[in-house]
Specification:
Elements: E1 13-14, H1 15-30, E2 35-40, E3 42-46, H2 50-67, E4 73-79, E5 85-90, H3 123-133, E6 137-144, E7 147-154, E8 156-161, E9 167-171
Parallel strand pairs: 2-4
Antiparallel strand pairs: 1-3, 2-9, 3-8, 4-5, 5-7, 6-7
Length: 172
Amino acid sequence: RLEGDDRRPVEPFALTSLLEDDIAATRRGLAPGVHIELNLGVDATIIGDRGDIYEAIANVVDNAIKYAPGSPIRIAVERDRSGGVAIDISDRGPGIAPDDRELIFDRFYRGSRRVEVEGSGLGLAIAKRAIERAGGTLALVSTSEPGSTFRIVLRADRVEAHNTSPRRQIAG
């Protein structure tokens, strides 16, 4: 499926619900003690396959849980200058080694800091392909000793300021 030209029906969906109910709440059940901060500066209706977008965001968040255990994870959403939304997923883990940065989106690549972390090296490759299928981008935007930040940019049908408190703490 990763290699194919898998075209799925595009049905607009609410990003806030996906992040709060499906990503953060599910991680709370799967990884007790995980602390996820949602900073939802905007609410948006995303254009893309909800399942693909869920899988992509979940893979990035799950990597943060695995490679930065005990680190709080921050998911921040803002309007992107393209008219869509930017979703930044950050942790305060060990960062990604310089030699690994160019390869982390390659299939089966496992970084040098994987130290006994289970996985196949497919998570980020799957995430990147899913986001690209939706017309978006996924990139590593910063990494250092105090953590890494990945940015997902998605097309959106509607982007508006969030009408409730944009910051929420979700802990497991």
